[in-house]
Amino acid sequence: MGRKYIDHSWDFRQEDTKYSVHGFHPYPAMMIPQIARRLILEYSRLGDYILDPFCGSGTVLVESKLNNRYSVGIDINPLALLLAKVKTTPIKPKTLLVSAQKLFDFIHSNRSQIDPPTFFNIEYWFKPRVISDLARIKTAISEINDQDIKDFFLVSFSLTVRAVSNTRNSEFKLYRIEPTKLASHNPDTVKTFQEIVLRNIEKMRYFYENADRDVEAKIYLADTRKRTPLPDNHFHLLVTSPPYGDSRTTVAYGQFSRLSLQWIDLPNAKNLDRQSLGGIPTKNLENSLPKTLNKVIEKIAKQEEKRAREVLSFYLDLRETLLETTRVTSKKGIVCFVVGNRAVKGVRIPTDEILVELFKALGYNHLETIIRNIPSKTMPLQNSPTNITGRVQDTIHKENIVIVQKR
Fold it and tell me: Which of 22, 179, 262, 331 is most deeply packed, by most CB within 10 A?
C-alpha cells in the first residue's frame, strides 16, 4: 500500500483560486485550479487525454487546455456543463465587448412588457421588478445568433439570477433572506448584470491569450454510473473531485443550480439532487463493499438506519462510477481523486481509505494519499447533521488526494 502523509505544499494558501475564467461563476465544492494543474503536470505529458467524470464547472478541463492536454468532462448537472463549456471556449475579448455593448443597448431600449417564466414560487424568490428586468435581459440574450457568445452571456445571466434573488447568497442551499432584511433588498438587476459581464470579459483575456485552441475539451451530459459514450482504455490521466455525499447535509448541487436552471430553461431543475450519487437510499444494508465502510455503516445504523442507508447508497453509486472509469482508463493510467472525509451522525467516514480498497479490488496499485488543508475551498465550515436548529458539527477542513495506477 502506498504511503499517506501530510504535505502543506498542496494547501496553496496564498494563491488566487479565481484567476481568469475560474472566477466566472461560483459552484459548490470547486476543486482549486492549482491542484488540478499540479496533478496534470506531474502525471501527464503534452497531448495526453485527461478525464474528469464529475467535472462540475470545469476546473480540470480549463487547466488541461491551458497546459496543452486534451480533456473530457462528464456531469449530470446542465448548469455545470454550461459553465464548463463557456470556461473552455476562448473568445476574443474585443468581440465580447462589442457584443456586450449591443446587448446593453438592446436591454435599455426594450421597455415592452415581457412574459417571465412561470416556474413554481418565482415570486417567492424574486421581487416583481427583478422578475421583469431578468425577463428583459433573457430576451435580449436570446436574440444573439452566435451560440458561443450567447452562452457566455448566459453564464453572466445565471450569476445575476443568483445575485438579485431573495436567497441568502452566502449559502448554496435555498434559504430566503430574513423578512427584516428582505424589505430593504432592492437590487439593480440590469446594473448587476452589466458589472458581471464586464468583469467576466476581463477574466476571459488571460484564457484567450494562453489557451491552446488546437486542444479540444469535450463535455458530455451523462451519468458515470452507467456506460458513457467514451472509448475503452483511452485516458492517460483521470483527475476529479466527486460529490461529498447526500445533499441534505453536505453540498446541495441541485438547490444551488435550481433558480438558474429554471430561468435558462435547462432540464433537471427539481430532481438533480435525487439523481446524484446517493440521492436515493438503499432498501437495506446488505452489500459487498469493503470492511472499512461496513464498520462505519454499522456505527451510523445504531443511531439511525435511514442515514446509514443513505451513506451506503452513496458508496454503492461511487463503486459503479469506478467500474465505468476503469473501462475507459488506459493500462498504467493514473487516477487522482480529491476527497474529503465527512462525518455523519458524529461518525467520521474515511472515504480516502474506502476508495483505496475499492480501487484495489478493481486491479489498481495505490501510489500515495496526500493530505492537504482546505484554506479556501467553497464549503460550509459547519453543517446541521440532524437539520435541528442550533445543532451543528464541523464539516471538512482537510482533503485527501488519493493517487492510484491501473495495472
Answer: 22
